[in-house]
Amino acid sequence: MLDRYSRRRTCWPRPAPGTAPGWSTPVTGRIGKPLLTLHGTLDVLLPPATDSDVYTRLVADAGRQDLHRYYVIEDGNHVDGLYNGFPDRLRPILPCYRDAFAALESWVDDGVPPPRRLVSRPATGDVVNTCSVR
Question: CA 93, CA 91: separation in Å to the nearest integer?
Fold first, then answer.
């Protein structure tokens, strides 16, 4: 349907089978460059079992698992804005994204692939500003 003022679509068409919503690229798992995926265990917006776990299997089925690292962030949520309300239950995921980006840079620039692992919530320390995926 077109908006009568802007002549733009007011809703997205249904995605083609095998593609992600809003994207025309097939979701096959056939990645060609190093890729890191981070997902929090407490993400209720996009649960890992129906999102990143599925994509990780697609990458493995395509034989590209050597180019992919999947980090499950214990107690991580989809958004960090909820952390202040539940600091005893949630862990901010932004510091993990920062460290993962540095790990990706090292992988691409120096050829050093980061390890695959679960990123546990530390019992002590500054979870708001620190995280290590490596």
Answer: 6
